[in-house]
Amino acid sequence: MDDREGARKRDRHLRRHEWACHGDWRDGRRRARGHVRLAQPVLDNPAGRGRHRVTGDGVRFGFIEGPKWGFTSWPILGCFALFVIGSWAFLLAEQRSKSPLVPLSIFRGSAFSAGLADATLMTFGMYGLLFVLPLFLQAVKGDPSWGSQPS
């Protein structure tokens, strides 16, 4: 091996090492060997915002007004139907997208899905308790409102 060939190998190694350590700073993102390039954010998506508004507002309205109007009334059932249709449209759009907001492949792992379900149930239980406990202390125990907040 002559000196030129050794110098070329050393230069190639140094260039490769420099690229791998310092990365590529184009578009304000670091891309280096082994790093995943993040998808570019979508700044304006009126269709997505519309689906979110219809889906979220419909299910919220259904749960808020359901006790007064009756959960089997047509407006409340329509709100829940909008929620189901909007959720289906979201999943369909995510499945067809090149860079989805929620990659659906992560739910294939049973350990991840079970952990997510467990965390969701614990969160709903905790916030439900934080909402209902002061009402219980005020209505049943007769505590004043200023003394019934959990701290």
Give your account of this protein's structure:
With about 150 residues, this protein is an all-alpha fold. The chain has three domains: about 5-35, no CATH class; about 45-110; about 110-150, no CATH class. Helix content is about 65%, strand content about 0%. It has four helices and no strands.
- The share of residues in extended strands comes to under 5%
Largest sheet: none
Number of domains: 3
What is the overall shape? flat
Mean pLDDT: 76
Termini separation comes to 75 Å
In a few lines, what is going on in this structure?
With 151 residues, the chain is an all-alpha fold. Helices cover 64% and strands 0% of the residues.
Please outline the helices and strands.
Layout: H1 3-22, H2 46-69, H3 74-96, H4 110-139
Helix pairs in contact: 2-3
State the main characteristics:
151 residues, 3 domains, 4 helices
